[in-house]
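Record type: monomer structure entry
Structure origin: computed from sequence
Chain ID: A
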Amino acid sequence: MKTAGWSTRRVAGQDDRSECAVRNCWEQWTREGTDAWKTVSGATWKTTRREDRRIVRQALVDPTVTRSTIREDVGVTIFPQTISRHLAEANLSSKRPFRALPLTLEHRQLRLQWCQARSMWNVTD
Protein backbone atom coordinates (compact mmCIF):
# COMPACT_ATOMS: atom_id res chain seq x y z
CA MET A 1 0.00 0.00 0.00
CA LYS A 2 2.89 2.34 0.75
CA THR A 3 4.48 1.51 -2.62
CA ALA A 4 1.16 2.42 -4.22
CA GLY A 5 1.44 5.87 -2.66
CA TRP A 6 -0.89 5.49 0.32
CA SER A 7 -0.23 7.61 3.38
CA THR A 8 0.87 6.03 6.66
CA ARG A 9 -2.42 7.07 8.27
CA ARG A 10 -4.49 5.47 5.49
CA VAL A 11 -2.51 2.20 5.66
CA ALA A 12 -2.87 2.13 9.46
CA GLY A 13 -6.63 2.65 9.20
CA GLN A 14 -7.00 -0.01 6.51
CA ASP A 15 -4.95 -2.65 8.39
CA ASP A 16 -6.27 -1.63 11.82
CA ARG A 17 -2.73 -0.94 13.09
CA SER A 18 -1.13 2.05 14.73
CA GLU A 19 0.62 4.62 12.58
CA CYS A 20 3.82 4.00 14.52
CA ALA A 21 3.72 0.27 13.68
CA VAL A 22 3.16 0.99 9.99
CA ARG A 23 5.95 3.59 9.98
CA ASN A 24 8.41 1.21 11.70
CA CYS A 25 7.55 -1.61 9.31
CA TRP A 26 7.97 0.68 6.28
CA GLU A 27 11.31 1.98 7.55
CA GLN A 28 12.59 -1.56 8.07
CA TRP A 29 11.40 -2.52 4.58
CA THR A 30 13.15 0.41 2.93
CA ARG A 31 16.31 -0.09 5.02
CA GLU A 32 16.70 -3.89 4.90
CA GLY A 33 14.35 -5.05 2.18
CA THR A 34 12.55 -7.40 4.56
CA ASP A 35 9.78 -7.26 7.12
CA ALA A 36 11.11 -10.17 9.18
CA TRP A 37 11.56 -9.54 12.88
CA LYS A 38 15.05 -9.64 14.28
CA THR A 39 15.98 -12.23 16.85
CA VAL A 40 15.65 -11.04 20.41
CA SER A 41 18.67 -10.98 22.64
CA GLY A 42 18.61 -12.42 26.13
CA ALA A 43 18.55 -15.78 27.82
CA THR A 44 16.93 -18.71 26.07
CA TRP A 45 13.88 -20.36 27.57
CA LYS A 46 14.62 -23.60 29.41
CA THR A 47 11.07 -24.91 29.27
CA THR A 48 8.58 -25.24 26.46
CA ARG A 49 5.05 -23.85 26.58
CA ARG A 50 3.74 -27.34 27.22
CA GLU A 51 6.05 -27.74 30.22
CA ASP A 52 5.01 -24.31 31.50
CA ARG A 53 1.35 -25.33 31.34
CA ARG A 54 2.16 -28.59 33.11
CA ILE A 55 3.88 -26.71 35.96
CA VAL A 56 0.82 -24.51 36.46
CA ARG A 57 -1.59 -27.44 36.15
CA GLN A 58 0.22 -29.41 38.86
CA ALA A 59 0.08 -26.44 41.22
CA LEU A 60 -3.65 -26.05 40.57
CA VAL A 61 -4.45 -29.73 41.06
CA ASP A 62 -2.46 -30.05 44.28
CA PRO A 63 -1.76 -26.73 46.04
CA THR A 64 0.53 -28.45 48.55
CA VAL A 65 2.93 -29.83 45.93
CA THR A 66 6.54 -28.69 46.33
CA ARG A 67 8.75 -27.13 43.68
CA SER A 68 11.10 -30.12 43.72
CA THR A 69 8.18 -32.49 43.10
CA ILE A 70 6.99 -30.35 40.20
CA ARG A 71 10.51 -30.34 38.76
CA GLU A 72 10.71 -34.14 38.95
CA ASP A 73 7.28 -34.58 37.35
CA VAL A 74 8.01 -32.20 34.47
CA GLY A 75 11.32 -33.96 33.83
CA VAL A 76 13.39 -30.87 33.03
CA THR A 77 16.37 -29.70 35.03
CA ILE A 78 15.37 -26.18 36.01
CA PHE A 79 15.94 -24.05 39.06
CA PRO A 80 13.19 -23.79 41.69
CA GLN A 81 13.08 -20.05 41.01
CA THR A 82 11.99 -20.83 37.45
CA ILE A 83 9.02 -22.77 38.77
CA SER A 84 8.17 -19.93 41.15
CA ARG A 85 8.33 -17.46 38.27
CA HIS A 86 5.97 -19.55 36.13
CA LEU A 87 3.53 -19.83 39.02
CA ALA A 88 3.74 -16.09 39.65
CA GLU A 89 3.01 -15.41 35.97
CA ALA A 90 -0.14 -17.52 36.38
CA ASN A 91 -1.09 -15.49 39.50
CA LEU A 92 -0.25 -18.43 41.74
CA SER A 93 2.27 -18.39 44.54
CA SER A 94 4.39 -21.30 45.54
CA LYS A 95 3.74 -22.20 49.12
CA ARG A 96 5.30 -24.67 51.44
CA PRO A 97 2.90 -27.47 52.35
CA PHE A 98 1.35 -27.44 55.80
CA ARG A 99 2.86 -29.80 58.32
CA ALA A 100 -0.52 -29.75 60.04
CA LEU A 101 -3.74 -27.90 59.44
CA PRO A 102 -3.92 -24.66 61.41
CA LEU A 103 -6.53 -24.79 64.14
CA THR A 104 -9.07 -22.05 64.66
CA LEU A 105 -9.79 -20.66 68.10
CA GLU A 106 -12.99 -22.72 68.26
CA HIS A 107 -11.12 -25.94 67.41
CA ARG A 108 -8.55 -25.28 70.13
CA GLN A 109 -11.25 -24.64 72.74
CA LEU A 110 -13.13 -27.81 71.80
CA ARG A 111 -9.91 -29.82 71.99
CA LEU A 112 -9.11 -28.39 75.41
CA GLN A 113 -12.62 -29.18 76.69
CA TRP A 114 -12.33 -32.76 75.40
CA CYS A 115 -8.99 -33.22 77.14
CA GLN A 116 -10.15 -31.65 80.40
CA ALA A 117 -13.25 -33.86 80.50
CA ARG A 118 -11.03 -36.94 80.22
CA SER A 119 -8.08 -35.78 82.35
CA MET A 120 -9.10 -37.85 85.40
CA TRP A 121 -9.78 -41.06 83.51
CA ASN A 122 -7.84 -44.19 84.35
CA VAL A 123 -6.84 -47.09 82.09
CA THR A 124 -10.21 -48.86 82.39
CA ASP A 125 -12.16 -45.73 81.48
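Annotation 1: The two ends are 94 Å apart (CA to CA).
Annotation 2: The helical segments are 8-15, 19-32, 49-61, 67-74, 80-89, 105-117.
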